[in-house]
Amino acid sequence: MVDATKVSKIKIDTGYAGVKEYPIFSRFDKAGEAINPAQCSIVLGSNGSGKSTIARAFTSETNSIEFIDKDGEVVAGDSSNIYLFDEKFIIDNFRKLDDNYLGPIVLLGEAAKAQENVDKLNMEINKKNKIKCGLEVAIENLEQVVKRLNKKIENSISHVDKNGTGLDSWRGRTGHYSVDKQYRKRPSGYVDIIKNETVNLENMPARDDLLKEFTDKVDELNQSSNFRRIDWNPSKIILPFDVNKINEAMDAVKKLARKMVMINTIVGSTSLRWVLMS
Q1: Domain count, the chain
Q2: What is the pTM of this model?
Q3: How far is CA 232 from each of CA 130, 272, 273, rounded to the nearest angstrom?
């Protein structure tokens, strides 16, 4: 580092005007002898007099400046302890605080850089807080969903019929169907008929056996009532109908319909269209 207390002159290579010496820190006694250099010097000059040239020499990387003591010797040392207070220094080191801050109006040097780091950290904290709030809302929504699901599970467990069957089975759902408020207006005995036709799934016949039984019932219906399957077309109906055959057919259909309650759960929805012919 340069011992600033020994600097009396500065020698600058101006380039366009050659090498110049500026005795900006030199002091002389009444006899004209050089004495200890001044610790402060103010340079005044009009525009174009070279003030900016001197300033730029302090920051030049080409070693265009030398420091001379009162005896004319070069003061050795690097210039790491020399700072130039110019416009760039102000931009780099001064920081004006926002109006909502308490304290000094400007920060200088390391304090300004520290404040920038604080502001960056505050921005990161705000981002993290927004993410945190979003996660808290999402967690709360999920907790509400879990509560609703748990409530449904509790309700399902509480609806158990006298045989110990819950809503997860056909028998349990049918039992619940008969007591649920929205189904109380169904015809009397409607649910009981369905329950009586329900069988235990463990003892239910195989699918092929059910299909064969269904086919046999259809054949029985055809034979007992002299039915003939045709496409629905009202113009082909011949009147009058035989009342006895109608009654006989209706009884057979009721029996078949009760069997279809069980079959429908295995083979799906089946639709048959029949008409009576005299």
Answers
A1: 4
A2: 0.33
A3: 67, 11, 7
Residue entry with tokens 């158990």: 160
Residues 181 and 128 in one domain: no
Q: End of a domain among 150, 170, 197?
A: 197
Per-residue tens of pLDDT for the chain, all 278 residues: 888 788 888 888 877 777 888 888 888 788 878 788 888 888 888 887 778 878 877 777 666 788 888 888 888 877 777 777 777 777 777 666 565 555 555 555 666 677 778 888 888 898 888 888 888 888 888 888 888 887 776 665 555 545 555 555 555 555 555 544 444 455 555 555 555 555 444 555 666 776 777 777 766 666 654 545 534 344 444 444 455 666 666 666 666 666 655 444 444 443 443 333 33
Question: Alpha helices, DSSP H only, in the chain?
Answer: 51-59, 87-93, 110-158, 170-179, 190-197, 207-225, 243-267
Contact 266, 198 (CB under 8 A): no
Asked whether residue 171 is assigned to any structural domain, the reply reads yes
**End residue of a domain, out of 84, 104, 124:** 84
For residue 31 the two structure tokens come to 């006899």
- For residues 173 and 224, membership in a common domain is answered with no
Residue 111 lies inside a defined structural domain of this protein: yes
SS3 182: helix
User: Domain range for residue 68?
Assistant: 4-84
Q: In sequence order, what are the residues at sequence separation of 6 or more whose Cβ sits closer than 8 angstroms to the Cβ of residue 172? A: 159, 160, 161, 165, 166
DSSP lists the bridge partners of residue 126 as none
Burial profile 138-173: b = 16 or more Cβ within 10 angstroms, e = fewer? eeeeeeeeeeeeeeeeeeeeebebeeebbbebbbbb
Any domain includes 231: yes
